[in-house]
Write a structure and sequence with these properties.
The complex is a heterodimer of chains A (about 325) and B (about 140). With about 325 residues, chain A is an alpha+beta fold. Chain A has one domain. Chain A has 6 helices and 11 strands. Chain A has a 9-stranded mixed β-sheet. In chain A, a hairpin with a 2-residue loop joins strand 7 and strand 8. Chain A is globular, with a radius of gyration of 21 Å. Chain B is an alpha+beta fold. Chain B has one domain: Beta Barrel (OB fold (Dihydrolipoamide Acetyltransferase, E2P)), CATH 2.40.50.140. In chain B, a hairpin with a 5-residue loop joins strand 4 and strand 5. The chains are: A alpha+beta (about 325), B alpha+beta (about 140).
Chain lengths: ~325, ~140
């Protein structure tokens, strides 16, 4: 018995150390480790960036190998905005599972509090995020979404994320380059099992009514050296920028930059320019780890979404489920 | 040796618990993380489905009354990455569930860990819960 107790104590301590270690090492532990298959990520020293036969950076698999990008779960884009000092909140405050419940701004504290934490701090709303250039109405919408714990998040209804949230919603994704066809296809296991197409043939965005607002928008891409730059317009207003509920309008213009500094890392950066909701553009960034043994599996969110049946409005009435 | 194994599994368990989390909908809107529950009962029904697998269990309360609870877990893809299969749970299995109850007091919960009485194995349920006081041992 004593041995067991001692073992439990050692185990607990080791676990705490490991968790602190994982928390410090990973941007978002919640989304990374178990992403694609039960396999491992990259270990050992960084391997060189893989390239296609023509020398272009290969953002996907190497022939004969497996692998997927383990998309992290990022709940608040405010934590990922590059601030005046050139760093993001997340880079300055790496998650630390050993120190929950402290004041916002201390290591390990999610921006604006967070949820389900021991401290039960709740969220801080727009005033906790001076780095987000909210217009007043956008701040009010954000505060509303914060105060009800994002219960109206469209992703909860199994609708897709739009824009950079695609790269912040579990599960894994793959990038498939088709240079002969002058396009790149990205396929997402999560985010309601969707795909997006990036035209690499030099075309412009459709103009006027030919640009039909959609969840994922219209994407055209080009290579700037080793960086894939994707310009996206034509978003509808049915998505939130993130789980925390930063709003956007159909005036949103996103420029994404994808690069692969080594085989195990996808560096992702996106600039949001939405003059309908924010007073100036802002840039977010994070990295996405390669899971060298992962493969995509099936995830059809719409199958049995009981959340909808239980969801009630602000007056306690069911929104989709049976009325009492 | 036993001690070493116990320590090892505690570490592995906690690492899994912090790494396999998935969210589909707002956890905080539906469940109350500040009120963790532990329920013991018998599985009556299993829905191995997206975006959340549900199973139902009969729980006998202290007065002897049997209440059927619905427990939410992760989706099949998430659960399989944590070692589950569609045949991990069977109707009639005796289980202990650690999780959180619905905010509205309904007999619905979000399962974080499921322990099978027959094997004693703790299975992590790919919960959408981000973190609870229980996890900070």
């Amino acid at each position: 018995m004593r041995a067991l107790l001692r073992a439990a104590a050692i185990g607990g301590f080791a676990a705490a150390v490991l968790i602190v270690f994982l928390g410090a090492g990973a941007q978002q532990p919640a989304g990374q480790s178990s992403g694609g298959g039960r396999g491992r990520g990259m270990s050992g020293p960084p391997q060189p960036t893989p390239r296609l036969a023509d020398g272009t950076v290969n953002l996907g698999r190497v022939s004969g190998e497996k692998g997927v990008w383990n998309v992290p779960y990022i709940t608040n884009m405010g934590e990922r905005i590059v601030e005046e000092d050139g760093k993001t909140y997340a880079e300055k405050h790496p998650p630390n599972f050993g120190r929950r419940g402290g004041a916002p701004g201390t290591p390990g504290q999610p921006l604006g509090g967070g949820e389900g934490t021991a401290g039960g701090a709740g969220r801080g709303g727009a005033k906790a995020e001076p780095q987000v250039p909210f217009q007043p109405w956008a701040a009010a919408v954000y505060n509303y979404n914060s105060s009800n714990n994002s219960k109206y998040d469209p992703e909860g209804y199994c609708l897709p994320p739009g824009g950079p949230r695609l790269m912040a919603t579990p599960y894994p994704m793959e990038i498939i380059q088709l240079p002969e066809q002058k396009r790149i296809v990205m396929i997402f296991e999560g985010a309601t099992h969707i795909w997006r197409e990036i035209y690499m043939d030099g075309r412009a965005h459709p103009q006027g009514d030919d640009l039909n607002p959609t969840y994922l928008g219209h994407s055209v891409g080009r290579w700037e050296g080793d960086t894939l730059v994707v310009d996206v317009v034509g978003f509808n207003e049915q998505t939130w920028m993130d789980y925390f509920g930063h709003p956007h309008t159909d005036m949103l213009h996103v420029v994404e930059r994808f690069s692969r500094p080594n085989k195990g890392t996808l560096a992702y950066e996106a600039t949001y320019d939405d003059p309908g909701a924010y007073t100036k553009p802002f840039t977010v960034r994070w990295t996405i780890p390669w899971n060298a043994t992962g493969e995509l599996t099936e995830y059809i969110c719409q199958e049995n979404n009981k959340y909808l049946q239980r969801l009630t409005d602000d007056f306690g009435q069911p929104i989709f489920g049976k009325k009492p | 040796m036993k001690a070493k194994i116990a320590a090892f599994s505690a570490v592995v368990g906690l690492v899994l618990a912090t790494s396999g989390l998935r969210a589909h909908h707002s956890f905080a809107a539906e469940f109350d993380a500040s009120k963790p529950v532990t329920l013991k009962g018998v599985v009556t029904k299993i829905e191995w489905a997206n975006p959340h697998t549900y199973f139902y269990m009969d729980v006998t309360d202290p007065d002897g009354k049997v209440i059927n609870w619905g427990m939410e877990m992760g989706s099949p893809n998430g659960l399989m990455r944590q070692g589950w299969t569609r045949n991990t749970l069977h109707i009639g299995d005796e289980v202990t569930v650690e999780g959180s109850q619905a905010k509205d007091g309904a007999h619905v919960g979000n399962a974080r860990v499921v322990t099978l009485a027959s094997t004693g194995k703790r299975l992590f349920a790919a919960s959408s819960q981000t973190d609870t006081p229980q996890q900070q041992r």
